[in-house]
Amino acid sequence: xxxxxxxxxxxxxxxxxxxxxxxxxxxxxxxxxxxxxxxxxxxxxxxxxxxxxxxxxxxxxxxxxxxxxxxxxxxxxxxxxxxxxxxxxxxxxxxxxxxxxxxxxxxxxxxxxxxxxxxxxxxxxxxxxxxxxxxxxxxxxxxxxxxxxxxxxxxxxxxxxxxxxxxxxxxxxxxxxxxxxxxxxxxxxxxxxxxxxxxxxxxxxxxxxxxxxxxxxxxxxxxxxxxxxxxxxxxxxxxxxxxxxxxxxxxxxxxxxxxxxxxxxxxxxxxxxxxxxxxxxxxxxxxxxxxxxxxxxxxxxxxxxxxxxxxxxxxxxxxxxxxxxxxxxxxxxxxxxxxxxxxxxxxxxxxxxxxxxxxxxxxxxxxxxxxxxxxxxxxxxxxxxxxxxxxxxxxxxxxxxxxxxxxxxxxxxxxxxxxxxxxxxxxxxxxxxxxxxxxxxxxxxxxxxxxxxxxxxxxxxxxxxxxxxxxxxxxxxxxxxxxxxxxxxxxxxxxxxxxxxxxxxxxxxxxxxxxxxxxxxxxxxxxxxxxxxxxxxxxxxxxxxxxxxxxxxxxxxxxxxxx
Amino acid sequence: xxxxxxxxxxxxxxxxxxxxxxxxxxxxxxxxxxxxxxxxxxxxxxxxxxxxxxxxxxxxxxxxxxxxxxxxxxxxxxxxxxxxxxxxxxxxxxxxxxxxxxxxxxxxxxxxxxxxxxxxxxxxxxxxxxxxxxxxxxxxxxxxxxxxxxxxxxxxxxxxxxxxxxxxxxxxxxxxxxxxxxxxxxxxxxxxxxxxxxxxxxxxxxxxxxxxxxxxxxxxxxxxxxxxxxxxxxxxxxxxxxxxxxxxxxxxxxxxxxxxxxxxxxxxxxxxxxxxxxxxxxxxxxxxxxxxxxxxxxxxxxxxxxxxxxxxxxxxxxxxxxxxxxxxxxxxxxxxxxxxxxxxxxx
Lengths: 563, 347
Description:
The complex is a heterodimer of chains A (563) and B (347). Chain A is α/β, with parallel strands linked by helices and 563 residues long. Chain A has helices at residues 3-22, 38-48, 51-63, 75-88, 92-116, 121-132, 138-142, 148-164, 172-186, 193-207, 215-237, 242-250, 255-272, 287-306, 314-332, 352-365, 375-415, 445-456, 487-490, 540-546, 558-561, and strands at 424-428, 433-434, 437-438, 462-464, 468-470, 473-477, 480-484, 493-498, 504-507, 509-515, 518-523, 537-538, 550-551, 554-555.
């Protein structure tokens, strides 16, 4: 075996072992792993899909877009979630481990693709490291079933990139494999839609491999397969109107939306750095990550130095950098028109490989002169240490506190007495976000209801973040002012209140504002009105003095009411 | 390829930021960076817009104020080159405001600022890093009907800004497109800028509670920003209860009770006292028939009195009192007490 080939083989093995080791910083979160927002909703569907008929029915519902009732092209990721849950049971840690392994495999694929395109092993290894530990990847890795859309679709695209970066002209079997990867990516998450079509031509144009024409048959095969699959899907499988329930509903095709999303994405990248004044978490020293950062930095420094090579030809590196920037732009492009003002942290995962590659090229380019040959290895070590500190800080300051609060809520909810099917839960005061981590369950009604059903073991139950007061009448949702709550609805309602320090308490009464500073009290479920409190009118001060556990619904503001 | 230079600069920046910026010294408590804080010598050293009229203190040793009426757009400001010894430290701005009305408004807890003026008036802890572009972290000046009716000053405290990176400090009262309603006069006084640690743990008030800073009087008590955010009830205590009964000349069937007490503020501030009176013997802490009088607490004043009208034939008369604070989640009261000195079987 020629020595270069042997060294490449060793490179594959060492990268394959190093990446999971570097990922061990995520194990800080291991004991806190829990499901997150949409996961609760999906698990409910998974539980109902029993037996072959049930499984087939669920798979069909996912493919036909009947699970979320919006047009999306991500049903393969939903099925991945189902499969993982079927294999590991309802274990968040199993899901977490599976996602980490998938992420490590993606990083390995990126490194191998760069190597196969003819770049130095050190650069290839470094690209994988930067993607592996990228702050942009945190969100995707910590939300298991909710976001395999991002991790899984990125995996397929990287598999496609790895395949297309080889110098050899592909055979029929290989073309079929590439086409299958493209189709899998197409239906795993729509953020990679542009990448599916463009990644192979972009790689061919950027890498400038000798047998350039080899890329074009591959691109042709991929386009043909993806077009056919897309046509079949849209014509015969999807059951929802594409425009009304998907493109039109989720996106806003205006330049103002583009500009505001661009600013938001830029702002979030700055916040994810952990070093700016508006960062959502800040670096702190801790024995575990000190040791991990030191070990990771030494490992990466040693391996980049070992594989430093001598090829730092400007033109090739510039083209690789161009490829990375192009890939990131294609991955971000669909996000630029997404409507709504919510955080977009999850959308940073798909561009992460390309941003990692761009950073690796920048580091590699520092070692061009004879006198600065040491600098890529040193910079790589420093950057690795930084990224490990960054991940640990995000985990400790965002995700672990949010997980603990979620755990408190689960424990408290299991202690609530007198729950029956059909009851309503209001969980008020939960912080919508701690650092980069949104609340794991009380974030939207769809996940909150599924969460309380799974935690209490009873269904159906309804759950809301708050009730809303519209001039003395209560509604569940400030955007739905047609369905008012009746007294019988309140008699089956439990209200839990979260204090600033994450503790929960049950409230017994709900205060209905019937005039200026005048409230009527109605008992919630399980409370007897022996003192006839409901017949009285109280002022705010009287209620404060009485110190009864009273819930004050939120007020519907006129702007919302006027809709 | 020049890619490596920005990347190396980025890494250097990150490495620097990893090392906590150590201030050269601890913050010097109560050091006011504002010059001529009392607007003496016709406000020398201040940028005073045309709409701001200087008002001398009613007595010597008092605090001068600025009165604003009608349309106002601009800033009452000082621009201060950042002293070098502030490296690694922060600064916090504090200022006072009071509203004078030619007419009466309901004494409620509703925010009535939008009825007082269009636009907004703000206390700004501004700064500039390059001498040209200014950042303007601010706290909005707002009032409830009850606060205005009290006739007291209200204190406003901004968040801490890290002064180390600033070239210029720019504390000011900002009028952003403001137009005061007819009959509304806004009084502003005693803008100060004091040192604080760059990371104050969300408690800027700790750094502005200083006897040597200029302050008008009387000033309303207010919960700290942290207490407000965490919705915590106050934790002070009452003592020294007294009660006097006076007949009302205009209405023979009524009596006026003058209730006196002393409240010692705890670490969690009470911004008001709730006094609940029942005249039918029911528990004033729980009764929907109770008559509640709210007295706003004042900073640095422990003794207070409240006047309540009751029926001359009320029996038995029961009175409860509690310290309370308006916080993020609404009104939070500490457990009410029934002082023996205030309970009467009959008047």
